[in-house]
């Protein structure tokens, strides 16, 4: 058996991290986030795959791929799809590994429509409001609980 594997999925507009509303999302770029996660994962002997898409179907395809490639856990920031996508929920329900939902901002302090998450119905854990460090917290939780 090879290294344990985790997949990190970033939803719509996260490609603009660092430049879009930095007062809410900070100045760290998506590449910064992925590089930090890759460094942590590799030091712990994990294989990591990071993927961002603005397209719901591509995120669903990535979840389906994770079902088949030995992925033990998915860390997902579904962004705006959090509040709208039954399709992402259905795909995650077909994934047998651990699912951690991450939000950079505290969605519960924002507009009321952001308070509902379809993904949370499947998630084993939810991290919100820790900035981009929430991804690191999610990865550390996965590493501790999936081996």
From TrEMBL:
Domain of life: Bacteria
Catalytic function, reaction form: 3-dehydroquinate = 3-dehydroshikimate + H2O
Keyword field: Amino-acid biosynthesis, Aromatic amino acid biosynthesis, Lyase
UniProt: substrate binding residues: 77, 83, 90, 104-105, 114
NCBIfam families in alphabetical order: aroQ, PRK05395.1-1, PRK05395.1-2, PRK05395.1-3, PRK05395.1-4
Physiological role: Catalyzes a trans-dehydration via an enolate intermediate.
Identification of the protein by name: 3-dehydroquinate dehydratase
Organism in which the protein naturally occurs: Vreelandella venusta
Taxonomic lineage: Bacteria, Pseudomonadati, Pseudomonadota, Gammaproteobacteria, Oceanospirillales
Originating gene: aroQ
């Amino acid at each position: 058996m090879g290294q344990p594997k985790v997949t990190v999925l970033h939803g719509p507009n996260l490609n603009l991290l660092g430049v879009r509303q930095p007062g809410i999302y900070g100045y760290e770029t998506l590449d910064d986030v992925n590089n930090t996660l890759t460094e942590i994962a590799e030091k712990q002997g994990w294989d990591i795959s990071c993927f961002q898409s603005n397209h719901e179907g591509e995120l669903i395809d990535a979840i389906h791929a994770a079902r088949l490639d030995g992925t033990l856990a998915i860390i997902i920031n579904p962004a705006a799809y959090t509040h709208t996508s039954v399709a992402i929920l259905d795909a995650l329900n077909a994934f047998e590994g651990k699912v951690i939902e991450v939000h950079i901002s505290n969605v519960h302090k924002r507009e009321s429509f952001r308070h509902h998450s379809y993904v949370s119905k499947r998630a084993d854990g939810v991290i919100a409001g820790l900035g981009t460090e929430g991804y690191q917290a999610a990865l550390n939780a996965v590493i501790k609980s999936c081996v």
